[in-house]
Amino acid sequence: LYGKACEDDDAEACRELGRALLGGVGLARDPARAVTLFEKACGTPAATAADSTATDAAACGELGVLAAAGPVGAPRDSARARVHLTRACDGGAPAFCVRLGTLLTAT
């Protein structure tokens, strides 16, 4: 269901499918595809111009958390994490405001 809804540009569905792929919940674990779906849901420049998905604040937060931790095989990127976590916090996802505060006090 999430796959079809995400194809139809439902940002929340893209985020939830990304979370399932990231954790391997009900699907084979696929962190790279999860990041792509979070980018689509967040509305980041990495998403293609054809993607018209509305911004999902929590998806932006997921990208921030991954950037702060260093996604599978990638180095940590505090600047990228800060951008995504700020976007999530400003977009109304308060859990990511806490993560942003932690990141800002650590740097």
What do you see in this structure?
This protein is mainly α. The protein contains 6 helices and no strands. The longest helix has 13 residues. About 7% of the residues have low confidence.
Strand content: under 5%
Unreliable residue stretches:
47-53
Structure classification? mainly alpha
| Helix-strand string | HHHHHH
The oligomeric state of the chains shown is single chain
Radius of gyration, taken over Cα atoms and rounded to an integer in Å: 13 Å
* Whole-number mean pLDDT: 86
Total of helices? 6
Main sheet overview: none
The beta-strand count equals 0
Instruction: State the end-to-end distance.
Output: 40 Å
Outline: globular
Q: What percent of residues adopt helix (DSSP H or I)? A: 55-70%
Short description:
The protein contains six helices and no strands. With 107 residues, it is an all-alpha fold.
Question: How would the blueprint of this fold be written?
Answer:
Layout: H1 2-7, H2 11-23, H3 31-42, H4 57-69, H5 78-90, H6 94-106
Summarize this structure as a short list of keywords or feature phrases.
globular; 107 residues; 6 helices; mainly alpha
